[in-house]
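Operator note (shift B, R.M.): manual run for DeoR/GlpR family DNA-binding transcription regulator requested after the automated queue skipped it. Running by hand, logging everything below so the morning shift can see what happened. Input copied straight from the record, untouched. If output looks odd, do not overwrite the archive copy; leave it for review.
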Amino acid sequence: MKPDDRRQEIMDILMEAGSASVEDLALRFSVSKMTVHRDLDDLEQAGLLRKVHGGASIQSSAQFESDFRYREKMAAEEKRQLASHAATLVEPGQIIIIDDGSTAGGLADHLATIRPLTVITNNLSVIVKLTAVPGIEVISLGGQYSRKFNGFFGIVTEETLSSLRADIAFLSSSAIQGAAAYHQDQEVVKTKRQMMRSASHSYLMVDHAKFGKPALHFLTGLDGFRAVITSDRIDAGHEAALSDVGITIIKV
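Run finished. Output pasted below as returned.
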């Protein structure tokens, strides 16, 4: 097994278990403990894990939290509630865009009763869920597949989006600071911006923990969305600050 493949599998194990010992990893991959230590050193330098005595554990960071497997597990029930409410904003016959985010992606579970629909998406999980649903036409955005985000991005994705028009775009974001949304990956930012340009209006779906969090790249001001859909667990201070500048908040 190539070192990069082994390190990815180590991360897969940590995603599921939260921690692993050097001894267990050495036995699993049939390599020496020294090789495992080198792998863990490289992954720690990349900010993806934290070495502890005898092994490693996952480390919360913007880079780690961006992995779709991690995002799917975090605030899962809250995200389901946001998706259920977002579905009430969709009408039969509409064309909607769903981005790569796990929060917006949850919308796919609620669309079967709103048919017919056309769904434009770069989210592989959404594509898999909806392609077998009668009455829902799926337009899958091409591009370069990202295992990290479980979606498609790049020039092909953006050019395809620029030739399409939709009624509504449902987007997620990894962080909100002040009255703006941010994301840690510039390619993801470019795709989300094009989704907004391709839709008549957009909604941002974010769980309450995203408010006040940092991320590297500015995505857009929150005034670019018809509303921000979040849970009633949003901090009162964040809610008041956004309301003061005219941002519509939908709490579910």
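Quick read of the result: The first strand starts at residue 19 and ends at 21. The chain has eleven helices and 15 strands.
Leaving this for review. - R.M.
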